[in-house]
């Protein structure tokens, strides 16, 4: 087994949670995440696929080449591995040609370019490649270009009147968690509001993976719109709440930012999270034993949060599904940094059951007028078999004291019994 593959397996076991739907991986065996292909090979194949036709983009699978290339680059970066310089250069040359072949996005071309590679996405991928090559300033320019194109596609009049190339975009709100609690749906509902402009991507992972590149790098991912438009923007990296050190980083840059948090019944979140990682029939059959074993391990540690969230505890790929549902530990860290009135904490069940009323709470929190959508589609819905009554009872007893602490700390009732 190659050294890189061994690193990938270790990485997958500990960090795949950042992008669980990445097609670069396939979950196999008892507790191992086996890499489907070595990353540089995947990057090479993605680049070659894009080179086949850099002009005539027809649909989903063409777009998928760019998403696959993007995630392969990001995942290899998280490994701490450097990309082969010649491969980087070939990718940069290819993406430059793609962008040169795109229209200059006058309004008449918007429909025609709808299936060219989600044209902001080509700029984003080129930005990643340039960042890996050490050309951060040039990468920032392409992120800004991606933001311009994306915003123009939906709000051309706002861009024509209020885009300011000298202004740095900045987030007004952040949805920092939790995973499998409805953050994608919430972000989609929110960015459907005519006064909310999306970032270049829903999940930017700046504070976990790109903080070293600086504030200008981050702000380039947001629309550079004049304040007088009263438009807001933000992102939703649902892993931020899991990292206590991030709260101080966010506060140091954006002390007035508003934070929206979704909390789902921890039993349902745990099962949904487990099922996302373990999709094979054999693993689903072992679900009860695996989760029960994790409960016993956590109970042996007790209430010591330092031990609970130690590297040793997280080294079990099953452990994270339970630990990330202990909301009280994660929220305490953030609420020790940010004042409570900068948080809007919502029940996922309310968003799922009555999205219109729940979104009105969000609009009130952000100072926006109400915006009724025709449809509220639930995104990233998982599919898994029901758990046994015995496991549900075990999980209910396990989470009860943590849920009680959460209710007392927040002064809220969740009624997850």
Q: What this model shows, in words?
A:
The chain is of the alpha/beta class and 417 residues long. Helices cover 54% and strands 7% of the residues. It has 21 helices and 7 strands. It has helices spanning 3-15, 39-52, 60-78, 85-100, 120-132, 136-154, 156-162, 183-191, 206-210, 215-219, 244-253, 266-277, 281-285, 287-301, 305-308, 311-314, 319-323, 327-335, 348-353, 355-366, 389-410; strands at residues 25-28, 32-35, 173-177, 196-198, 232-235, 258-263, 343-347. A 5-stranded parallel β-sheet has the order 4-5-3-6-7. Strand 1 (25-28) and strand 2 (32-35) form a beta hairpin. The longest helix has 22 residues, at 389-410. It is globular and about 60 Å long.
Tell me, rounded to a whole number, the average pLDDT.
82
Structural class: alpha/beta
Q: What is the total tally of β strands?
A: 7
The 3D shape can be described as: globular
Number of discrete helical segments: 21
- Write down the Rg: 22 Å
Helix content: 40-55%
What's the main sheet like?
5 strands, parallel
Give me the side-by-side strand order of the main sheet: 4-5-3-6-7
**Element-level helix/strand string:** HEEHHHHHHEHEHHEHEHHHHHHHEHHH
Beta fraction = 5-15%
**Straight-line N-to-C gap:** 47 Å
- Which spans of ≥5 residues are poorly predicted at pLDDT below 50? 1-36, 105-117
């Amino acid at each position: 087994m190659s050294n890189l593959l061994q690193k990938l397996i270790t990485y997958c076991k500990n960090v795949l949670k950042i992008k669980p739907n990445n097609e670069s991986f396939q979950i196999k065996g008892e507790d191992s995440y086996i890499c489907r292909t070595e990353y540089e090979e995947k990057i090479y194949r993605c680049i070659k696929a894009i080179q086949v036709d850099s002009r005539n983009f027809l649909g989903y699978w063409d777009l998928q080449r760019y998403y696959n290339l993007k995630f392969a680059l990001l995942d290899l970066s998280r490994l701490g591995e450097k990309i082969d310089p010649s491969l980087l250069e070939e990718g940069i040359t290819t993406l430059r040609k793609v962008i040169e072949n795109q229209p200059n996005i006058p309004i008449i071309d918007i429909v025609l370019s709808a299936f060219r590679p989600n044209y902001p996405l080509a700029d984003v991928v080129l930005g990643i490649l340039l960042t890996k090559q050490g050309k951060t300033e040039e990468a920032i320019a392409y992120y800004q270009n991606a933001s311009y194109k994306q915003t123009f596609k939906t709000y051309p009049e706002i861009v024509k009147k209020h885009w300011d190339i000298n202004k740095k975009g900045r987030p007004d709100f952040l949805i920092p968690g939790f995973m499998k609690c409805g953050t994608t749906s919430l972000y989609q509902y929110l960015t459907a509001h005519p006064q909310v402009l999306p970032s270049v991507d829903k999940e930017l992972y700046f504070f976990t993976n790109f903080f070293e590149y600086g504030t200008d790098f981050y702000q380039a991912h947001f629309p550079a719109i004049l304040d007088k438009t009263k438009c807001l923007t933000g992102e939703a990296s649902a892993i931020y709440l899991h990292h206590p050190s991030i709260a101080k980083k966010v506060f140091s840059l954006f002390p007035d930012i508003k934070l929206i948090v979704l909390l789902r019944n921890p039993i349902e979140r745990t099962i949904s999270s487990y099922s996302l990682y373990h999709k094979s029939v054999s693993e689903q059959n072992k679900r009860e034993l695996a989760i029960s074993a994790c409960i016993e391990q956590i109970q042996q540690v007790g209430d010591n949060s330092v031990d609970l969230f130690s590297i040793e505890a997280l080294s079990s790929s099953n452990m994270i599904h339970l630990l990330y549902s202990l909301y009280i530990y994660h929220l305490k860290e953030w609420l020790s940094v940010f004042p409570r009135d900068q948080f809007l904490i919502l029940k996922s069940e309310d968003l799922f059951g009555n999205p219109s009323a729940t979104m009105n709470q969000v609009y009130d929190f952000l100072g926006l007028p109400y915006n009724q959508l025709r449809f509220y589609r639930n995104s990233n819905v998982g599919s898994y078999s029901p758990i046994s009554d015995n496991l549900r009872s075990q999980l209910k007893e396990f989470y009860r004291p943590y849920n009680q602490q959460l209710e007392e700390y927040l002064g809220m009732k969740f009624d997850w019994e």
